[in-house]
Amino acid sequence: MKFASRIEKVPPYLFVGISRKIAEKRAQGIDVISFGIGDPDIPTPDNVVEKLRETALDSPNHRYPETDGLPEFRQAVADWYQRRFGISVHPDKETLPLIGAKEGIGHAALCFIEPGDIALVPDPGYPCIRWAHERLDADLDAIPDDVADKATVMWLNYPNNPTGAIADADYFAKVVEFAKAHDIAVMHDASYSEVAFDGYRPISFLETPGAIDVGVEFHSLSKSYNMTGWRLGMAVGNEDIISALMVIKSNLDSGVPNAIQYMGMEAMELSQNAIDERNAIYEHRRDRVVQTLRDIGLDAIPPKASLYVWTRIPEGFTSAEFTALLLDEADIVVTPGNGYGEYGEGYIRLSLTINDEDMEKGLARLSEWQIPSKD
Ligand SMILES: Cc1ncc(COP(=O)(O)O)c(C=O)c1O
């Protein structure tokens, strides 16, 4: 059998290997605690699930959805943008529902990239972005002019997975200037825009003057409203890019089931109080994880947003070695930083989507664990 080169070139999806290792340990009766994948343990709000129950019984919702979604859903997205970021977008021309942000990110690659083209993507960065495109660098000053001139698209992701880094208005303004100077489309993955701490509220790339001329922003209801299992997100921004994505999507998928879009409309109406209460749970976990990592001698910095604590490991260990030691000696799963790219080497990532009881059990094991000496 001859597979396409992209199958052979790409390492297996990061979490597949980790899941296998956990399964092996659990089969031996070991109670492994996982700080691995970022998948909210907190359930989808009841009223959102209730909306599915209601709309699932409605037979028109049993048929193919439209790729561009329900007009009411597009309007709900535009209303959410207005409320959340103070930005007006055209519901029919500048928004598009996605079967999760991941689907949109993967398909957006097909809008811009031909064999041999250059895409600028973050390293370390979310594997889906890196997989769908060639890897390069997202530090604007580090990108040589000739590379920038050849690039067709640049990916950003703030708040960032895996690092938790955030972007400010000045940085986004610089991105718009750079994109215009080099004729590059900007794709901003804002999947963690609603998961933030210490009173911080992430901004939208589209708040930047001129951003809508060059870019699109991706949102995910997965992390915003604990809805990973329902698969819903949206792309918002430049009309031409939205149209191009619509061309790809209408040929490759049949859109988001209507009942799931109704759930999304209900979710986007949730009060900021409800979001703040949810974020307070993550914030408490963040503080516990950071403190424990510091107690064992790691230099963890508390992130202002995202679901992850990203921390450097001691010199002399690779990320894979350190991760394997934690699993073998403390029965704890963390994600090795090199899974997010070359520049993630020397780091690990801990996810905060673990219930408090398991987290405390895992942190107790971590506190008792001695980092082996490398000399
Ligand atoms: C940066 C980033 N973008 C997108 C996604 C995927 O979002 P969705 O569940 O909406 O496909 C994730 C999931 O972990 C992520 O970390």
From TrEMBL:
PROSITE patterns this protein is in? Answer: AA_TRANSFER_CLASS_1
* Gene3D superfamilies found in the cross-reference section: Aspartate Aminotransferase, domain 1 (3.90.1150.10), Type I PLP-dependent aspartate aminotransferase-like (Major domain) (3.40.640.10)
Q: Name one Pfam family in it.
A: Aminotran_1_2
Record key words, sorted: Aminotransferase, Pyridoxal phosphate, Transferase
Which superkingdom, per the lineage? Eukaryota
Q: Which InterPro entries match?
A: Aminotransferase_I/II_large, LL-DAP_aminotransferase, NHTrfase_class1_PyrdxlP-BS, PyrdxlP-dep_Trfase, PyrdxlP-dep_Trfase_major, PyrdxlP-dep_Trfase_small
* Cofactor(s) annotated in UniProt: pyridoxal 5'-phosphate
GO MF entry, a single one: transaminase activity
User: Where's the Aminotransferase class I/classII large domain?
Assistant: 31-366
Q: Which family does it belong to?
A: Belongs to the class-I pyridoxal-phosphate-dependent aminotransferase family.
In Swiss-Prot or TrEMBL terms, this protein is called: LL-diaminopimelate aminotransferase
The protein's organism comes out as Geodia barretti (Barrett's horny sponge)
